[in-house]
Amino acid sequence: xxxxxxxxxxxxxxxxxxxxxxxxxxxxxxxxxxxxxxxxxxxxxxxxxxxxxxxxxxxxxxxxxxxxxxxxxxxxxxxxxxxxxxxxxxxxxxxxxxxxxxxxxxxxxxxxxxxxxxxxxxxxxxxxxxxxxxxxxxxxxxxxxxxxxxxxxxxxxxxxxxxxxxxxxxxxxxxxxxxxxxxxxxxxxxxxxxxxxxxxxxxxxxxxxxxxxxxxxxxxxxxxxxxxxxxxxxxxxxxxxxxxxxxxxxxxxxxxxxx
Length: 259
What we know:
Layout: H1 10-37, H2 39-68, H3 73-94, H4 101-124, H5 129-152, H6 164-188, H7 195-217, H8 227-258
Helix pairs in contact: 1-2, 1-8, 2-3, 2-7, 3-4, 4-5, 5-6, 6-7
Transmembrane segments: 129-150, 162-181, 201-221, 227-244
Keywords: Membrane, Transmembrane, Transmembrane helix
């Protein structure tokens, strides 16, 4: 039997290893381009992207509800968590009038959306990954909203453990993970280009907008990508390819041994 081909070839590994550097360059270019138009617009760009992203979440989920022909209370919990709650939070920040209690309300509504789904999956013995990620995102957003609200009312003098923007990034990354996993499954199943599929694509796009907005809020556009970082990414790609090849060989030997 011939040698099993590696599951990750070098070009794919290179894309994975250089993606963070390319993304930082993209943030720098985006912020620089907007700054040339207006410095004021550049300062509010992150919140504007997040406002648009929250709307895309609601529209995407609405398309999925239209596809299945109904909307349960869990669906409404998700939609209302995004619009109006997240819109109020991000829109208020964009206008210089922060409304952190809207983040708290959004987090609680996400519990309405995901907690019953996780409970149903638990009782049915079904897969719990996606509803579990949703519950984790709801917990992070609830914590973020609570901390931001307490800071606004001077109950807390500083954010515990981590800064508020870091909690925001963790929350949007959890959203992005869940939406990306679901889209990858739809692609693997060769799902038709229907309203459900388009809605999921829109939700992944929304996650990318929130990621970019939070990245700008964390000041990632100010990070300098040095030249040696690109060489390190090439070395990392070679290591990833080697590890993938070894893992594939090991899996092949285990398969042959079982046979």
